[in-house]
Amino acid sequence: MSGRAVVQAYQYALDPTPEQERTLRSHCGAQRYAFNWGLRLVRANLDQRAAERSYGITDAGLTPSSNWSAYGLRKTWNQRKDEVAPWWSENSKEAYSSGLANLASALRNWNDSRTGKRAGRVVRFPRFKSKRVAGSCRFSTGAFGLVEDDRRHVRLPRIGTVRTHESTRKLFRHLQRGTARVRSATVAHRLGRWQVSFSVEITRVDPAPTRPGEVVGIDLGVRYLAVLSTGETVPNPRPLETALPRLRRFRRRMSRRSGPDRRTGQLPSRRWLRARARISALHLMIRSGMLGNRGLARRVADVGMAEFRRQIEYKAAWSGVRVQRADRWFPSSRTCSGCGVVRTKLRLSERTFDCEHCGVVMDRDHNAARNLAALAGAQAADTSSLSRRATENGPAGNPRQTCIARATGNATGSPTRATRRREAMAQDTFSDVSRTVSE
Ligand SMILES: [Zn+2]
């Protein structure tokens, strides 16, 4: 089986020395400085041209517009850096060029959005980067990556060899096998600590399915994140929701303590500062719970079902599992998974499905998941060579939130075959899917 190249990010928390931390901060500051410098330049140029236009100067007579491509900005920066930032050599030149590259793409997005070349949400003119917002710095040339024969350190230009908080084993093995190439490294201060994120080109050799022909139905919902046709359930942990009462309590506590007052110049009390520190710690916890957790369920619960689907689909493809979405009108909740009789109505409040015809009594979501599995199995019967697949459906009872039938890449990684078999369905046991997804 031949491999295919994908770009994946490998992120590691860092444990820098105080000296390294200073250098990291300096580089992020340098990136921000270059971004803001370039933005000021472009702004001044645009304002100048607008003013000239308002005096009635024709386009030919206007001050020439500045070149806001990454290349153009970098060129101007190099001409003027000795004058505007005599300290520039303290940081890697990559810090400045990545700041200018970010600015160039922000300006391009704004311009494309303005001229209708870019679809989607309106992109506003870039804003100055504040010192208070944690910055980042990207390196795309120079020595960066893992340290040879060492799974606890990364190498960064100018910053040196930095200890990682966790093992770099997975990426290490890819590099050892020669199936990975590190394209860039971005350092940033996020969630209270320094992190490095490597953008890595990986040549994936997707494994052959270990259990071909097996099928699992997945019913997505709110009470449980997912209910499987095997009867397993994936809880919906909702980190934000569970943290909200505590957040409310801390906010109330803070409001009863005396804070700063800009008008009278009153300084905040120590008790107020302490209360505020607890709130920000809680915010950090919620965020890291939502983003940093390794378990799939915890990561996606508050992010939403669209994210769940996105992750299931691409990770399933990696393991040779094919995901098939059921048609949004497929009556997965109203059909009896025992005898196939379709009920005309099933209220959302009815948590169990009981069939008058064959006497089946079953949890509503479990019944739906079994129907999805059966649907996939029936349609897979005539497309037998395809391997494991999974079927999922949106929350029961609301067709608008149910997704449309769509086939993603199949087990052998051949897209043409996947499209041809658009109608085909199949599955997998949930434990398999979850293993795939939380990998
Ligand atoms: Zn029945």
Automatic annotation (TrEMBL):
Signal peptide: none
Domain Transposase putative helix-turn-helix, residue spans: 8-44
InterPro entries xrefs: Cas12f1-like_TNB (IPR010095), RNA-guided_DNA_endonuclease (IPR053470), Transposase (IPR001959), Transposase_put_HTH (IPR021027)
GO terms (BP aspect): DNA recombination; transposition
One Gene Ontology molecular-function label: metal ion binding
A Pfam family reported for this protein in Swiss-Prot or TrEMBL: HTH_OrfB_IS605
Keywords attached to this entry: DNA recombination, DNA-binding, Metal-binding, Transposition, Zinc
Domain (Cas12f1-like TNB) ranges: 307-372
Domain Probable transposase IS891/IS1136/IS1341: 198-286
Family: In the C-terminal section; belongs to the transposase 35 family.
Name under which the protein is recorded: Putative transposase
Organism, scientific name: Crossiella cryophila
Upper classification of the organism: Bacteria, Bacillati, Actinomycetota, Actinomycetes, Pseudonocardiales
